[in-house]
Specification:
Blueprint: H1 6-30, E1 35-38, H2 39-47, E2 57-62, H3 63-75, E3 79-81, E4 89-94, E5 97-106, E6 112-113, E7 122-123, E8 134-135, E9 138-139
Parallel strand pairs: 2-5
Antiparallel strand pairs: 1-2, 3-4, 4-5, 5-6, 6-7, 8-9
Length: about 140
Amino acid sequence: MSSETPAETFYRRGRAQLVSIYAVLEVLRRAAVAAWLFGGWGLDARIGRITREHGDIEFWVERSDGERGTAALVEEGAVLLETQPPEESREFTWNGVAFSTAYFDAHPDGTFRTQGRWSDWVFPADSFSDFPAFLAAMPSRR
């Protein structure tokens, strides 16, 4: 039985996830792969503070960069899990932290779309901008 309080567990897990976010972003930056946080961590980055405990970390990556990003992450020590259709996303663990990369395609009309189960998703032209969001005083987009 752990002697950790709920607040200590929240802090420890959140810190491990933050470290992982910046490690993943750094690996992808070195591989010239742009990535955007989404899901709960993406929302927290937009509002600038951690609002709750998160189960995992999710990133959007342009499909054309997906294989290069996956290879770079695996080379750095991330473990690729064969749990998702690769045309949609890839799931990983790294130092005990779960994260995933989901893929989008840019379209000539300026929108972005996915493939697979969510192929009907259409993101507006400004969805993947260079506007930085911050978590713990660090940018959450490469």
